[in-house]
């Protein structure tokens, strides 16, 4: 977040919240979150869940405005940020069809965010370029939340993924988490693997050889002392997995469509796969799925991907309240 003479006054209206760790901050990557921070976010997410169940919507962020700026398609991320803001009494400027905004006239990202922050209190940005959120944050005076920067990170998804694991299994420590699919371009995997470095976990990575986890992320796992294995065969690790996190092959990131066609159907989770998994394994997917999980699995109690979306609402409500200084 850039600072200039228009930077908002850090004085908060009630209580001493100067210590609130995310007040006024950008959320660009999961590296910003220590374990105590995660505990805080999840504590607030629990409160949000209770409040939504009890009253549906309430006025914590009344008068606040969020700008949803999406240069790539989105269903869940965009609508859950909208729902989160509206359930907290705030409102949203939706810019999802950038083709109809001044972006189509050639406006730069810095100029677009400096426009939106004149009207909004927080900007949620999804963009196809690695580092776009960080670039936007350098120019913006208001907080920028990274909703996916190309093949880089997707920190709010990783937070909701971690919350899901915690809610479904009651703990994160001691688990074996297997990530499957497009580990090269899948930003949700990059963020979740990094976030799990805060815990005592073992990781398993299953992918075609050409879609392995980037060296940079593996180096971070090594640095954190995380034990992990890579394989092309799910059956090598399925039986030991407490969580199976499935991802879509990210077609839009491939230069060579023939390569995409050769790997897109590499894995399909079906009833037969589930019959070989632990009885309490949690099956997750950030969605959208395009064939990686057969619909016949949806009724399996271990299929958590629809619950995962709902958890995302509470986590995003918590993050907005924290960034805007109300939690
Ligand atoms: C993911 C994304 O955009 O990275 N979607 C999401 O936010 N739930 C996953 C994907 O598009 O495959």
Characterise the protein shown here.
Strands 7-6-5-8-9 form a five-stranded parallel beta sheet, covered by helices on one side. The protein has a four-stranded parallel beta sheet with strand order 2-1-3-4. The protein is 35% helix and 14% strand. It is of the alpha/beta class and 327 residues long. The protein has two domains: 30-153 and 312-323, Rossmann fold (3-Layer(aba) Sandwich), CATH 3.40.50; 155-308, Rossmann fold (3-Layer(aba) Sandwich), CATH 3.40.50. Mean pLDDT is 94; it is low at 6-17. The chain is globular and about 55 Å long. The chain starts with 34 loop residues before the first helix and ends with a helix. It has ten helices and nine strands. α5 (155-169) crosses α6. The protein binds N-carbamoyl-L-aspartate. N-carbamoyl-L-aspartate is lined by residues 76-77, 148, 154, 157, 187-188, 247-248, 250, 286-287.
The helix/strand class is: alpha/beta
State the end-to-end CA separation: 20 Å
CATH class term of the largest domain: Alpha Beta
Which strand-content bin applies to the residues? 5-15%
Radius of gyration: 20 Å
In CATH terms, what is the fold-level topology of the largest domain?
Rossmann fold
N-to-C SSE series? HEHEHEHEHEHEHEEHHEH
Going by CATH, what is the homologous superfamily of the largest domain? Aspartate/ornithine carbamoyltransferase
Indicate the CATH architecture of the largest domain. Answer: 3-Layer(aba) Sandwich
Number of domains: 2
Biggest pleated sheet: 5 strands, parallel
Helical content stands at 25-40%
Shape: globular
Name the hetero compounds present: N-carbamoyl-L-aspartate
Low-confidence stretches: 6-17
User: How do the strands of the widest beta sheet line up side by side?
Assistant: 7-6-5-8-9
Number of strands: 9
Give the number of helices: 10
Name the average pLDDT.
Answer: 94
